[in-house]
Batch of 4 targets.
Target 1
Amino acid sequence: MIKVGDVVTYRLDGTIGTVVDVKRDKIQIVWEDGFTSWETRQSILKNEDEFIYYQFKINELLND
């Protein structure tokens, strides 16, 4: 669940931002460069989710 104050990453280019509003399927984010935009849940990754994903990938590589 993404909520106001969460730090997120834009999936396409890795830009970091902070969630400032959540309306149904859209999330408003202030990006590290000061730009603000509305994004879909599919286009962003909550930073703790990103950590878990990369941890899984590293473990997968180590076990091969």
Note: The radius of gyration is 13 Å.
Target 2
Amino acid sequence: MTDTAAYALALVLIGGPLSMLAPFVIARRLVVKHADQVAADNAARTARKEIRP
């Protein structure tokens, strides 16, 4: 096996699972960001004593 083939194989073996897991990592970060934003909005709304029906 040439060096180039070994390098390509390593990239496929490492990059394949990472590319499959990336959407889950991104989604998790977006969920946490959204939860933090909602919590901040609720705290601000509570401080203003604004009640939403």
Note: Residues 18 and 25 are 10 Å apart (CA to CA).
Target 3
Amino acid sequence: MIFNRLRTSILSLILLVTIVFFLIHATPGGPAYSILGMHATPDAVAALNKEMGLDHPLWQQYAIWWEHLFEGNLGYSFTQHASVASLMGSYLANSIILYVLATLVAIFFSIIIGMFQGYWAERTPGVLIGAGQIIVYSIPTFFIGVMLILFFAIYVSWFPPGGIGGDQSTGALNIGSYFHHMVLPAITIALPLTAGLSRYFGHQARSEYRLDYVRTAWARGIPPLRIAVNHVLRNAIRPLVTVIGMMIPGIFVGGILTESVFNYPGLGWLLWRSALEQDYPTLSAIVLLIGVLTILGNLAADLTNSILDVRVRYE
């Protein structure tokens, strides 16, 4: 099972890199015109094609593309006048901290909400929880962000409306201010993620509550909290690992919208800015990174699930 997962992940990575390569070359006028603009002179285009190796045959460009990836050379941003790798490196840490924080918050509340939903299944509290999940999940991420800014940043002034914490005079990072600025973006990402995860976990918990071993525990007079933690939670949480891996693309999409709304300097904000400026080297590199992280996240989820559940290893 593990070997098949690894093989599938490697093939997916190769396919992803190939698709990104051909998408870059499918832009109108080729990559050179995308970088320099459609009004660039033929001499400038020819010079850039030679500099980037775009005057070689396509198969040779494809080999060079792989060679550059292995070297960590993701290209050069002509709009921001810096290497793409250095640009992404300066924004990556902010995004990782934000996404991990939002995901941990979502997992924590998803388990709590899902356990109550499973316990109250087909009763009024469970139905109300399900309706709330659908409503929150259907609200666009950017709308959630705007509403949070209007209420918590403007109306009650509890949190800043955007940006990142730091000392305005020295530019030094202030940890307290850093996380204070991160509260609203993290909630914006975590809310729809919590709605989706808790709904799935609620169905798993409901199924566990209906099994014979749980009914036997009830009949033996075991306290409800002990049944929930020692029996229902332990078995219902295993499939949640796989679902979290599958929701990684959704986390990045929500992050892109959230960072643009809150002007938060992360990869999502850089991707949005690169799209507006038609910075195709940076745009393609971020898309490639998101794809790679998605594949690796799904692989990690599958491997973790195989460790938690021995039966999965032999499927």
Note: The chain has a mean pLDDT of 78.
Target 4
Amino acid sequence: MEPTGDHDWIKGCTLPDHTELQERTLKTDQDIVIGERCRIDYGLLGNDVVVCEFSKINGNIVASGDARIDNWCEINGGTSSSRRTPTSAKGG
């Protein structure tokens, strides 16, 4: 892969302690950040999940917090986030 500039420091995969590799899912209770142009052949289950541009995820994305998927990503699975956004109060 050609160098892409300032983001070259992400050249490997780092998994936090106590991450579980289940049959088809990487599961952690921490945040997950997938760098740009990555291919992950597992689903992701974590607190906040961020998938950067041009990445491909072959599995489901489940976030107990926020899920952010940037432009030009390919997700071959479902996505869900359990964080609720507040609704505005009705005037009356």
Note: The first strand starts at residue 20 and ends at 21.
